[in-house]
Amino acid sequence: MRRQQGMVLDDRYVPYLQMAGLYHLARLNDRWFRLDEALVSVFVERWRPETHTFHMLFGECTITLQDVAYQLGLPVDGHYVSGCLSEFHIYIEGGRPAWVWFEELFGVVPPPSQVQKYAVNCSWFQETFGECPEGADEDTVRRYARAYIMMLLGTQLFADKSGNRVHIRWLPFVARLEEMGSYSWGSAALAWLYRCMCRVANRNVIKLAGPLQLLQSWIFWRFPRFRPAGFETFSWPLASRWSGYIPSSSEKGPRVQTWRLWIDRLQDREFIWMPYSSPDVLQVLHPEVLEPRHMVLWRSVTSLIYFAVIEWHQVDRVLPQFGGVQPRPQAALNIDFLMSKDGRGGDRWFPSHLQKWHQYWEDRTQSVLRFDVVADPGPSHLFLDWWRQHGKRFLSPDPQLGDPRAAAIPVEASQRGAGQVPEMDRPDDVPDRRRVDRRARVGTRRSQRDWGWLERAMEAGEEAGPARGRRRHHPGRGRGRDDDDDQHGPEGGDDAGAASVAGGSTQDGVHGGEWYGSGMGDGAEPSDAGLGSGPFGHYFVGVPTDDQPQQDGTPWVIPGSQWQDFLGADTLDPDFGSPRFLAEISAIMQEDEPGRRRPQTPATQAPLDVDLNEPATTPVGDQFALGGTPHSAYTAASQSIAGPSVAPLHFTPPAQPTPHEDADEIEDEEPFIRRGQRPRVPRRCGTGSHLFR
Known about the structure:
Elements: H1 14-20, H2 23-29, H3 37-45, E1 47-48, E2 53-55, E3 60-61, H4 65-72, H5 88-91, H6 98-106, E4 115-116, E5 119-121, H7 122-129, H8 138-157, E6 165-167, H9 171-174, H10 185-200, H11 212-222, H12 252-264, H13 279-284, H14 292-295, E7 303-306, E8 309-312, E9 325-326, H15 336-339, H16 350-353, H17 355-362, E10 378-379, H18 381-390, H19 398-401, H20 411-415, H21 434-440, H22 452-464, H23 481-488, H24 563-567, H25 572-576, H26 579-596, E11 616-617, E12 629-630, H27 663-668
Parallel strand pairs: 9-10
Antiparallel strand pairs: 1-2, 2-3, 4-5, 5-6, 7-8, 11-12
Helix pairs in contact: 3-12, 4-10
């Protein structure tokens, strides 16, 4: 964690560091800090990005601005740390182009091999500004002080996962060393730590960056069970207490499992709510930290800003850390959309781009919580009851937990009272809905997909018209159909139709170029012999053409277009209302009548004296469950369009069963008349694609 071994803290830098408010951080930089990766990883597992808190068995806890002030000695009150990343000459008054300004401030420009876009290698800073020469003038000392501050910010507070580069975004700040102390470096460092822990909560992220010495020191101060032994010397800032800590070199896997189980069994008495109130801390405390302008912001529910990084200081969920009683918290603020912003994808002036959230920091004093401080801070009884139902309290497997899952609420929680938080106006949620919006556009015109073939198929079907007898083709197999239709011309639509269902005619549902029959439904594929529908529907009943074989007792099923297309055709009246059509259909029926009166073969079902084109009725003794029964089914010697049967049937409808009779016996009885099996057609898919088959 100590990345500035080659940068010596010269006494001549101290006045500039004190003006910048970074002197205490520089003292930490002069010490060794080693990170216990196993311990930090266990606590990162407990981090909840939506609330910015660690979830424990006893409740929630987190790192606040108070911890930043005590552990690192950084100022909390001041201007937000924001601006732009590289386009200084555009957004900043008196700014220069990035590398021109760099040369003016440092007197030298790094070679291209030491630069990666807008980041300079740390090794170059260490080699060039490692030690200030003796007898240097004031301008030279300022250059070396600027380089030291650049390295201090880029490695100790705002380090990225590379760990060996420093971004030049700090040029506008080091250009005015006298004004650096007016910025809130503590809030910016906490915002960056929040963002880094929220990122590593993603299962695809395995590296953690940020001010990790703050995280580890916070764990040691708040959780005595994880505190290393032998570190009882206090100094300022408080994180310097653990400067000589060397973590165990044993395998991390068993230690992670052990510490995870320890955290699952932690009680509230094993967590120190207020560690900074001890006399040992007050003896080394720097008086600047206790200034009212800094202390009041410890309890402020406001935004934390570090350029494009916006986080939320949710201290209303951890009131016991400030001496209060924790009530049942309100719903956490959803800022998932802001968590996706990190400054990449184009430079901009962030105070204007994220103006709303920068304004919250400007109004930070108006969102300070006011509550009663008690002698025994902790969660209330109402909070613990709610926490049992909604909190993420355990991470270990069930066999290892044992009794803590059923631990009773302590009596002290009832004695503390309910606790309360004053009503405050809070900003609206800004959830990240980009992924939801992308999924909603899949398969639509907004997704920029090529659906031109679908439009062409629909237009081609409308232009053909239902009267031509043309069957709409399947979209996947008929994209080349338009070329074939153009070859036939507008006059050849009747002769170029699909083949008959029976396979014997080259005309699709046409006799002499005209339609006949009635019904409603969809069309069918030519390969479904005997299955399909005509222009009126599923069961287009008619008579065969001259070149088709005769089939006794079986209605003809001829595929065609849809019912609405048929009614909307301009040729409806000329085709079906002319004397020529009536004469031809009468002659055809007279010619086919002798064939229909021939004796039926044993392999063929007897024809039914039922007119399927007649409206359905439901008499009292109806034995058909669906659709009703045509009235002609109860009349002897009824005629249909297919002709009369060989021997008219005389029957009596079955009697209605009495209420005490068993319904199952009625259903099992043999019906008096069996209706002919209807041809099965493909189901409609529900999306409209069946219209193009």
